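Late entry, evening session. Most of the bench is empty. Finally got around to the prediction I had been postponing all week. Sequence below, unchanged from the version circulated by S.P.
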Amino acid sequence: MVNLDETSRVRVLEPADLSRNLMVDYIGEDYISGRLYNLGWYPGVKIETNTVFDPRLPTVTGDVFRIRNASVTQQLDAYEGYPTLYNRFQLPTMLQRHVWVYTYNGPVIPERIIESGDWKLAANPNIMEAT
């Protein structure tokens, strides 16, 4: 049986919004091996492996949440268009977590890759990360 304690979502909403509205607890930022693409209004993650985090591969930044109510998984599945538009996999992270990640099922345009791997920065280029 798969543990549904944690899920990682590429940043679309702020953690406080998700915590307040979806009965989840914000755990923190983490990273998976994969490529992030700009699909227009939303991002899409493509993965090459789901067995280990590999720092040699491109990295995608995401926020990790602990789900407090199992019904949230159904809400997220509906929001993400699972299993048609997106699929859901449990993946290892850089910080040695195992999190659920929605990966895009459709074709991507290679030129639409987000090199930073960070949707929040790509969608809001004026945001400066604290150093």
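Two things to note before I forget:
The two ends are 40 Å apart (CA to CA).
The chain is about 20% helix and 35% strand.
Will write this up properly tomorrow.
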